[in-house]
Amino acid sequence: MNSIGSEKVLGLIMPSSHTPPADVKDAIDLAEGLKIRYEIIDLNPIIERYAQVLPKDKRAMGNLTARIRMNILYYYAAINRYLVAGTSDKSERETGFYTKFGDGGADILPIADLYKTEVLALAHFLKIPDSILQKKSSPRLWENHLAEEEIGMSYNILDQILRALIDKRKKPAEIARRLKVSPAAVKKVKEMVDKGSHKRDPPPIANVN
User: Is-contact 108 77, C-beta < 8 A?
Assistant: First the structure.
């Protein structure tokens, strides 16, 4: 923040009905501690208006919520001539655990080369408040939405498998043996990486020549 200048940073706090009040308070406290400007924008009226005209689907509405957030971020970026800083880390990017054109959209990705466990270690080093550090990771896209529950394993295990698969290019059988995890867990992570590739790659262009 010192290198950029806190006066050049704007934080947007965008709660919905699935956002615990404690999350809003923590966001406000962090913004004030960093001495950055911030605004609170209630997403509920926007989400409710969409819900009036769209068929009901929990996952689709959750992804829509993430895209509404990104629309608002880019609106404020446009009127302030700012860049949008993404929050995706390497664990999320590699597994596709983010919303395409939602939280996956950004101008810069400052932590996208750090696995989730490394982001947590960095947060400890930066002395981020315990009230934030002790939270379970959650996109808050629906009620009781926890990242590790949806993924099906802890980030500690996930990151170890990802490092072996992506950084060290080890074979799944060797990874399972070395990490002492089930072959099914390694297979699941590999499938997530493969299925999420469309989010990481630019859209294909139809060749008309």
Answer: no
Domains defined for the chain, CATH in brackets: 6-133 (3.40.50.620), 152-202 (1.10.10)
Enter the pTM of the model.
Answer: 0.89
pLDDT digits (tens, 9 = 90+) for 63-94: 999 999 999 999 999 999 999 999 999 999 99
Spatial separation of the C-alpha atoms in residues 50 and 106, rounded to whole Å: 23
Strands (E), the chain: 10-13, 37-40
Q: Which candidate, 74, 76, 67, 68, places its Cα nearest to that of 101?
A: 67
> 123-136, pLDDT tens digit by residue?
999 999 999 999 98
Distance from first CA to last CA of the chain, Å, rounded?
Answer: 48
Three-state DSSP class for residue 137: coil
Read off φ and ψ for residue 156, nearest 5 degrees: -60, -45
Where on the phi/psi map is residue 30: left (φ > 0), alpha (ψ -120 to 50), or beta?
alpha
